[in-house]
Amino acid sequence: MLTHLNLHNFTVYPKAEMSFSPGLNVLVGENGTGKTHLLKLLYSSLSCSWALKPALGLAATQQAWQHTLGQKLLAVFRPEALGRLARRKQGRERCDVEVSFLDPALNMAFSLATNSRSDVVMPSVPGETLDLAPAYLPSRELMSIYPGFVSVYEGRYLEFEETWRDTCVLLGAPTLKGPREAAAAALLAPLESAMGGKIVLDGNGRFYLRTASGKMEMPLVAEGLRKLAMLARLIANGTLLDQGFLFWDEPEANLNPRVIRTVAQTIVDLADSGIQVFIATHSLFLLRELEILQAVSQPVNEPMYFGLSNGLAGVQVTQSPHLADVGELTLLDESLQQSDRYLEIGV
Fold first, then answer.
1. Does 318 lie in the same domain as 263?
2. DSSP assignment string, 212-281
3. 25 and 81 belong to one structural domain
4. Which residue from 20, 14, 10, 219 is spatially nearest to 114, judged by alpha carbons?
5. Which of 40, 216, 243, 319 is the most buried (most CB within 10 A)?
6. How far is CA 327 from CA 62, 99, 145, 323, 331, in A?
7. How far apart are CA 309 and CA 315, in angstroms?
8. pTM score, two decimals?
9. Radius of gyration of the chain (CA)
10. Which of 120, 168, 138 has the alpha carbon at shortest distance from 36?
């Protein structure tokens, strides 16, 4: 479980100290406040830890850690050079990152300078590595591009961030059988109800939505439902079971309010089941739905909300278990002002 993230001069953040909930963590802020940057940074760190899990009982060297993490950050963020991730001011600056876990043996710290090309600098390496791969869901769906995408990505130079490749690899994992299949069924039920069927992967390497009337190929399924299909597949194959991690950028994108309610319920259910969830959102509807569900279910672990706002020195972070306490939210202000304008015209 992730517990803390400390940043100094990372992209738009002059300084940030964040403490995470074991369950649900929600990033809220205007465009340009670095919500996706935070998701990608945490995901890259965890993905590197999983990729370096011991092979044949041998621990990875410091050089391997530094190179692997540097390459992952380059592949996920897609900057021209790694130093572009360091917040740029007059003169040479250094970016420092500390990622802390409940198990201190997993803790990692690294730095990079504005002139860094490809490798980070790590004063020491973690004593342990993650046993599970984290999952990252981008704001767009990947089910329709899945056929052949991984092989093309690995064999050609493509201007797509590596989270797409990683997620496609996870989507292709076989589904569960036995007792763990039953555990996944409860989480799958509301998603399959919203989609009107089950997600299946045929022998030809294509995903379909199987309904009572037959199979429908993914490009013919509504885009919003294809996002649900990604989530359903990661639950069905066990990726989002067993104390895993989910990073989801704008879950609400291309979904209508009724389906957003299903997404909100699934997010809360995943967090209650032991998955540590991180989402970034612009949706006041989704935020309110999460608040309602949290109030009704009273989860063991309180959620944590992070308000990101632009200041004179850069983006500032405010956090609280309560959305109302994370500072002024533009999306809330704009929603209220729209309601006032609507009332003024007397419609």
1. yes
2. TTEEEEGGGS-HHHHHHHHHHHHHHTTTTSSS-EEEEE-TTTT--HHHHHHHHHHHHHHHHTT-EEEEEE
3. yes
4. 10
5. 40
6. 41, 25, 39, 8, 12
7. 5
8. 0.93
9. 21
10. 138
Residue 216 to residue 202: CA distance in whole angstroms = 12
Rounded-to-integer distance, Cα 80 and Cα 276, Å: 31
Q: Are strands 245-249 and 24-29 parallel, antiparallel or unpaired?
A: unpaired
Q: Which of 217, 242, 267 is the last residue of a domain?
A: 242
The continuous run of DSSP H or E covering 19 comes out as: strand 13-19
Its domain, for residue 83, covers 1-134+244-347
| Angstrom distance (rounded) from CA 262 to CA 20 | 24
* Interval 269-302: pLDDT, tens: 999 989 999 999 988 899 999 999 988 887 778 9
Q: How many residues appear in the chain?
A: 347
H-run or E-run covering 22 = none
User: Is 221 found in the same domain as 288?
Assistant: no
Which CATH number fits the domain that encloses residue 12?
3.40.50.300
According to DSSP, the β-strands at 108-113 and 94-101 are: antiparallel
**Structure tokens belonging to residue 26:** 């929600």
**210 neighbors 232 (Cβ within 8 angstroms):** no
Q: How many domains does the chain have?
A: 2
- CA end-to-end span of the chain, whole Å? 50
